[in-house]
Amino acid sequence: METEHVEGKSAGNGILASGRQTMSDSAKPTLESNDAYPSVEELIAKARAPVKREYLRQSGTRVLANTVVMTEETMAKLREEEGDDAEMMPSGNSIPKTSVEKKSKRQQRRDRKEARSNKSVENLCGSVAKTGDVNACRFGTSCHFNHDLAAYLAQKPPDIPGQCPFLGGDIRCPYGYACRYVGTHPKTSSADLEGQLSKAETRDKNGPLSSIQELNNLNKGFQKLLWKNAVTFPKADAQLGALGLLGKAKKIVMKISANGSEKDTKQSAPMDPAPELSLVESLGNEIKEGIKPVSPTDLVLNNLDVKLLATPKRIRTETETTEFGDDGHEIFGFRENGDEERTNREIEDDKDWKSMANEVTLPLREKKLIDFRGKLYLAPLTTVGNLPFRRVCKKLGADITCGEMAMCTNLLQGQASEWALLRRHAEEDMFGVQICGAHPDTVARAAELIERECQVDFIDLNLGCPIDLVVNKGAGSSLLTKPARLEQIVRATAAAIDTPLTLKVRMGYFEGRNCAHSLIPRMARWGASAVTVHGRTRQQRYSKAADWDYVQQCVREVPDDLQLVGNGDIFSYTEYGKHIQACGSKLATCMIARGALVKPWIFTEIKEQRHWDITAEERLNILRDYVAFGLKHWGSDTKGVETTRHFLLEWLSYAHRYIPVGLLEVIPQQLNWRPPNYFGRNDLETLMASDSAADWVRLTELVLGPPPSNFTFSPKHKSNAYDKAENG
């Protein structure tokens, strides 16, 4: 058996870096040659991976992914709290998810506030950490954080082996004494320290997070304007008003004081419903009274004389529902009693809508172009598709990257956690953000806001998210059942921005009732630049293989001025090439999603046209790259290290499903194959193949050191649920 060295300790027969005893080849409980075992064809038919028999092992007791893993100290504390019920708890350092009560967000905020008020020694002031000077903080004694540097260093965990990720350039580590790699920081004099800090301040003034080459950071002052609802959206609201979708929107007015300064105030002034009243006339009285209105439909700035039209309303009975015909078009007026005739009122409403769309025309702006043809596209991936993971994929060959899905309402409310999903690294030369919303006003305004405040190459609208939390709000894949609202959203958003708007859809909402092929030709007229088709329905989720025959059907329907991207179950360069060849030149490229989570080097395989039999050490180096990128993104202090560990564990909940090429009877591996219990070619490869959350924690110890005493982890996604569609 080959011996592999990890962090100076042998990863062969003996002790792993986590301290766990390993077995020699002779002691491994492999299957005997006379044991009954299915053939390769039978295994593939049952979606079971055909691993070579010499690597198989008997089933043993493992800590599965649906448990909560914690340290021995935390487990002992939990047993003490349980008291007499502790005997009912399982042994070891893991318990079922249902046994752990998660703190509410309100309780978490209270805990953080209490920790700050007590000036805990763990919460060192950032200014003191950077300089080592207790007088460096401009808030002095009123600061909510600890200024006792000696007390902080006394309780600080030991440094992590390795070098600080901020070394190797002119960038000084922004975490100073709080960095978990402070021992590797160069010794600097006070004069040199002041010079480096002044350079850092100059660099930060040039652009947010410019020192670590990250863009699209939310400015604190702008965030406060969003909190106060004091941000205007002239482009989006002009389009919404022209389409009759603005409704009773509030106007933001600027009162002009005597000295000429402007103060933000909010005045609830619904739009005049009179359809024939021009915008200039409706605002004349406010101008005479000394109020300068910043109207949502600020068409006066463009010297336009556009009349606002009343919004046509569709009248439906209580028993009326939405249905689709055989061609996927929506059938209005379907009633449970079988009467499918449309009323005269409904027909008149449709005529009003069509006449409105034809009558209201705004000047066309030059649209930016984007070309996806022949480029490798990393899909937007919730939780795991963060900036460090995208940098890993970019290093391994990805051409197009897209941020995690952000909810439009949360962006408009200025939620920092949602804006963090829009962050972009300078290495991402073709980058987009994905947004999700249920109404034309929120989506159009969020898109205008992103275009104005961020640097993106395209904005992707999610129309395929199957998660119940999103669907129940009328967003995501539920919009496929509402073509009229979908048209309103796409038209208003595409017209409000110059950045290309792309759409991501599923085949349909219900199984067997596909509608994407009938919507795609209309999406080009609505203003979309590209459409991605995922070969599954919302009802199907991930329970069956992607239907690429239907993707080919959509390719035949796509107009020449619209790019179409295919998506679903791409896990090797042969599958990628097969789909590109089968769909022809009208298919721009293929989007790679879960395949990149399991093996991000799939981009390298596609570009080099080979099945890469990657070694365990090479895979560990990829994890090291992720950790380095994560520490730069989330920070190299204790909080940043544990945040990096958490997201690394979320990624490992997918990555453990990869089966090395040299262990398979048949290649390439399929995404829906369930791997059996098997040994790797060395102990590190065996550890990486484990579906035990406790083993994933041991893997993080190789690159981030041991976790803290109060550490717990529970996977967010049930990525090992092959038969059930529980992963959203």
Automatic annotation (TrEMBL):
Gene3D superfamilies: Aldolase class I
Cofactor dependency: FMN
CDD domains, A to Z: DUS_like_FMN (cd02801)
Keywords for the protein's UniProt record, in alphabetical order: Flavoprotein, FMN, Metal-binding, mRNA processing, NAD, NADP, Oxidoreductase, tRNA processing, Zinc, Zinc-finger
Family matches, as SUPFAM superfamilies: FMN-linked oxidoreductases
Stored Pfam families: Dus, zf-CCCH_DUS3L
Zinc finger (C3H1-type) residue numbers: 119-150
Annotated segments matching region Disordered: 1-33, 80-120
EC primary class: oxidoreductase
Known EC number: 1.3.1.-
Annotated Polar residues bias: 19-33
InterPro entries: Aldolase_TIM, DUS-like_FMN-bd, tRNA_hU_synthase_CS, Znf_CCCH
Catalytic activities: 5,6-dihydrouridine(47) in tRNA + NAD(+) = uridine(47) in tRNA + NADH + H(+); 5,6-dihydrouridine(47) in tRNA + NADP(+) = uridine(47) in tRNA + NADPH + H(+); a 5,6-dihydrouridine in mRNA + NAD(+) = a uridine in mRNA + NADH + H(+); a 5,6-dihydrouridine in mRNA + NADP(+) = a uridine in mRNA + NADPH + H(+)
Source organism, top-level taxon: Eukaryota
C3H1-type domain segment(s): 119-150
Family in the record: Belongs to the dus family. Dus3 subfamily.
Name assigned to this protein: tRNA-dihydrouridine(47) synthase [NAD(P)(+)]
Organism expressing this protein natively: Sphagnum jensenii
